[in-house]
């Protein structure tokens, strides 16, 4: 079963207008499958194969003679030496678009090579796990709580018979052995796994690197490097605070989120919808889920870089969307019927920032249908985040 991705029109457009298209994202988000489905006439080669990666790195000219454009090169970050030769091949036929379609699951390594060798020649897109809208478009009967626990990896929805916990155990083992070993000088994969689990416990909370390092028993510099590794491989996302001249006391630390709630639930040992409903961390899991939907909304609208959170010493609003100085404010609440107290922080920030700057304010909750609240606020279901 194929689940259509919202990014597909953009990739088709990019391949018509740019010589190189780079698709990044965590492992198993569907990068390779999406490219191969959209471009069936392109040759395909994967640098996950050690022999292909070795030739691409050590004999790039011979590699490109064997795999002539148009070609899809999978996991291209394993051969950074190839990029200079890709530049030469592109420049030799600059008028031809869609020559090289590249995928990579290690974003920072890949972006460094692209910026050094393919600047001005490549369009860069990121593919995350399935949004709830994508899941519901393919499988309309999917229950919200099920989507949260199962997560957004396409394989889990294309084949519902897959055991979720077995999938995530295998995913974690592969991630540690492949991405972590190649991205970071990690002395103990067991310590790194403990670090990832500590991050899961802190999803939807302010990032405190010193606390993370102390709880896992590693140096603060190591914690900083490992956070970069998790971010580079698409496992965590950091959300920056929103600032304005009128709010002097807002914190400067980002908030930490796991990128996918399925992996988050697996790391927290939340194995079922019922376990989720009873979990003390249900609110943090819900906020993590809402954040993923807002990131997809942001990408779909072409407004990457517009999403923040607001916090001073005593209050917080979970999400702020800043579009040209006009703000949308969102609180994520694990409830079906928000109470008046759930909107206190929204109302406070509206007054601090100035109501004239606020485009809308809403509580994103598990209600099946949106409805108005007092003072122009709304209770909003996730599916209305369009």
In short:
With 386 residues, the protein is an alpha/beta fold.
Describe, in plain words, how this protein is organized in 3D.
This protein has 386 residues and is an alpha/beta fold. It folds into three domains: 8-126, Rossmann fold; 132-237 and 257-280, no CATH class; 296-384, Trna Endonuclease, Chain: A, domain 1 (3-Layer(aba) Sandwich), CATH 3.40.1350. It has helices spanning 8-17, 31-38, 50-58, 60-66, 83-92, 107-117, 132-138, 144-150, 154-158, 164-183, 189-201, 209-216, 220-232, 261-267, 273-278, 282-300, 344-353, and strands at residues 20-24, 43-46, 71-74, 100-104, 122-126, 205-206, 236-239, 255-258, 307-311, 316-323, 326-332, 358-365, 371-372, 378-381. The strands form three sheets. A six-stranded mixed β-sheet has the order 9-10-11-12-14-13, with helices on both faces. The protein has a five-stranded parallel β-sheet with strand order 2-3-4-1-5, sandwiched between helices. Helix 8 crosses helix 14 (261-267) and helix 12 crosses helix 13. It is globular. The relative contact order is 0.10.
């Amino acid at each position: 079963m194929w689940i259509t991705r919202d990014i597909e029109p953009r990739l088709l457009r990019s391949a018509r207008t740019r010589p190189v298209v780079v698709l990044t994202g965590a492992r198993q988000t569907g990068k390779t499958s999406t490219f191969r489905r959209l471009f069936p006439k392109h040759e395909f080669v994967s640098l996950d194969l050690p022999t292909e990666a070795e030739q691409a790195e050590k004999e790039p000219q011979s590699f490109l003679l064997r795999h002539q454009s148009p070609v899809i090169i999978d996991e291209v970050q394993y051969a950074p030496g190839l990029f200079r030769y890709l530049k030469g091949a592109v420049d030799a036929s600059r008028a031809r678009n869609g020559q090289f379609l590249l995928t990579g699951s290690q974003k920072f390594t890949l972006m460094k090579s692209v910026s050094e060798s393919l600047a001005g020649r490549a369009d860069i897109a990121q593919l995350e796990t399935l949004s709830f809208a994508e899941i519901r478009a393919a499988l309309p009967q999917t229950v919200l709580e099920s989507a949260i626990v199962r997560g957004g990896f396409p394989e889990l929805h294309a084949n519902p018979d897959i055991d979720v916990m077995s999938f995530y155990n295998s995913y974690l083992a592969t991630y540690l052995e492949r991405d972590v070993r190649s991205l970071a000088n990690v002395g103990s994969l067991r310590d790194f796994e403990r670090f990832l689990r500590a991050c899961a416990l802190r999803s939807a909370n302010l990032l405190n690197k010193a606390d993370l390092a102390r709880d896992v028993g590693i140096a603060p510099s190591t914690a900083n490097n490992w956070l970069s590794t998790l971010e580079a491989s698409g496992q965590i996302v950091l959300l920056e605070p929103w600032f304005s001249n009128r709010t002097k006391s807002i914190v400067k630390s980002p908030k930490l989120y796991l990128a996918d709630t399925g992996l988050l639930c697996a790391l927290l040992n939340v194995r079922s919808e019922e376990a989720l409903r009873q979990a003390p961390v249900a609110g943090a899991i819900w906020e993590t889920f809402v954040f993923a939907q807002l990131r997809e909304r942001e990408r779909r609208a072409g407004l990457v870089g517009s999403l923040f959170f607001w916090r001073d010493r005593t209050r917080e609003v979970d999400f702020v969307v800043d579009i040209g100085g006009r703000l949308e404010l969102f609180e994520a609440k694990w409830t079906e019927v928000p109470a008046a107290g759930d909107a206190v922080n929204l109302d406070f920030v509206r007054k601090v920032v100035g109501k004239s700057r606020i485009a809308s304010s809403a509580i994103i909750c598990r209600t099946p249908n949106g409805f108005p609240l007092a003072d122009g606020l709304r209770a909003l279901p996730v599916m209305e985040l369009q």
